[in-house]
Design brief:
Layout (H helix, E strand, L loop, with lengths): L4 H4 L2 E2 L2 E2 H30 L11 H25 L8 E10 L2 E8 H37 L5 H28 L5 H6 L3 H9 L1 H16 L7 E4 L2 E8 L3 E5 L5 E5 H6 L2 E3 L6 E9 L5 H17 L3 E11 L4 E9 L4 H21 L27
Antiparallel strand pairs: 1-2, 3-4, 5-6, 5-9, 6-7, 7-8, 10-12, 11-12
Helix pairs in contact: 2-3, 3-4, 4-5, 10-11
Length: about 375
């Protein structure tokens, strides 16, 4: 069956059938092959990072870039397809009257330019989307390499650099859109901010302080990811340090977000970097305990603390006379920093302390009061008979 060439030359709505066929064919090609082409482009782009990410395969890279590259290919195919058509209204005139030196103004808007601007806007977005996904992949590789080292400070640095870089890229993309799509002179815009820029800086004062606080944390290194810290009475494990805030996980598994400014301005205690855990308390025994028995109790406790394999610098001493007990002070340092083992050592020593007191025939005191009644003699008048 031979189709007459004149058939494709027929014009409908300002375009020939041949142009409509090209339009449909390009769109169909883009829909059918965009996933294959995006995968091939991802693999080709991965060759640039092959030596950098030798320990990580290309599956992660392809999974990150598949969607943004497919979106980019779809935009390009739609743009090529639309350019095959001639718009019946190439120029749309919007007439409006404005009182300006008693003159009427006519503004011409080219519909093709509007379409080009829209596609340019979307294409720039897709390109920066691809760049952000590449940054995610680089951060993924760096995080893997950081996990292979013993130093935990690099585990903390990678997420911070990732967020900072992505923020800078977003700002760069914003100015690129202003310059190329909206044709705004970015340098003139920045220069002309003037007082408005000062107002924005003042409004962003806390954000800038938090950003400076994040740099201070990375320079001074008061803690790293995984450390247990106390900040103004709030205790938790460092989970992530961002450029605005630090995220902690409390002992009851609650997420706590603290601004970086508060992390460096407040009183911070790094519990993990302590070499020991200190235990200090008083034992109250009854006043009926003889002095010799108290000496034996103190000596036995000191011997126990000196010979225990998981305590150091332990001592016991007869401290003071309490309201209802003779108080013996006990203090020692637990060598093991594990919280669970710390609790077990305390429990084991408490049992042994109870046994020492009982072996000396003494008892633990509890708050008591003794009431002494004075008996006085006196005449009581006899009751009168009724």
């Amino acid at each position: 069956m031979i189709i007459d060439s004149q058939f494709f030359e027929q014009v409908f709505w300002g375009n020939t059938i041949q142009r409509y066929c090209l339009f449909a064919g390009i769109i169909l090609f883009g829909i059918l092959f965009k996933r294959i082409i995006s995968r091939v482009l991802s693999l080709l782009l991965f060759k640039l990072f092959r030596s950098f990410s030798a320990a990580i395969g290309n599956d992660t890279f392809v999974a990150l870039l598949l969607k943004p590259i497919a979106f980019f290919i779809s935009l390009c195919s739609y743009y090529l397809a639309v350019n095959q058509l001639k718009h019946p209204l190439d120029v749309v005139l919007f007439n409006y009257t404005r009182q300006l030196e008693k003159a009427k103004m006519r503004v011409a808007v080219d519909l093709g330019d509007v379409v080009d601007k829209v596609f340019l806007f979307l294409i720039i977005l897709s390109v920066f989307w691809i760049i952000l996904r590449i940054i995610d992949f680089v951060a993924h590789v760096l995080r893997y390499k950081a996990s292979m080292t013993e130093d935990r400070s690099d585990d903390q640095l990678v997420p911070f650099l990732k967020e900072l870089t992505k923020t800078l890229i977003c700002f760069l993309g914003f100015f690129v859109l202003l310059g190329y799509v909206f044709e705004i002179n970015v340098l003139t815009l920045i220069t002309g901010l003037g007082i408005g820029g000062i107002a924005i800086a003042l409004a962003a004062k806390e954000s800038l302080e938090n950003l400076i606080g994040s740099f201070t944390i990375f320079l001074d290194k008061p803690f790293t990811v995984g450390d247990v810290v106390k900040v103004d009475g709030i205790e938790g494990t460092i989970d992530k340090v961002g450029f605005r805030s630090t995220r902690l996980i409390s002992p009851d598994k609650t997420m706590i977000v603290i601004p970086n400014r508060s992390m460096i301005d407040g009183v911070l205690e790094n519990v993990t970097r302590r070499n020991f855990r200190r235990v200090s308390f008083f034992i109250g025994i009854t006043y009926e305990t003889p002095a010799l028995a108290i000496q034996n109790i103190v000596s036995a406790i000191n011997m126990l603390l000196d010979t225990h394999p998981k305590t150091q610098d332990g001592f016991a001493t007869f401290d003071n006379f309490g309201d209802s007990a003779l108080n013996i002070q006990v203090a020692y340092l637990v060598v093991d920093m594990s919280h669970a083992e710390y609790i077990r050592v305390k429990e084991s020593l408490n049992y042994q302390l109870m046994q020492i007191v009982q072996d000396q025939g003494s008892e633990f005191a509890y708050p008591t009061q003794r009431l002494i009644r004075e008996n006085t003699t006196g005449s009581i008048p006899p009751e009168k008979p009724e």
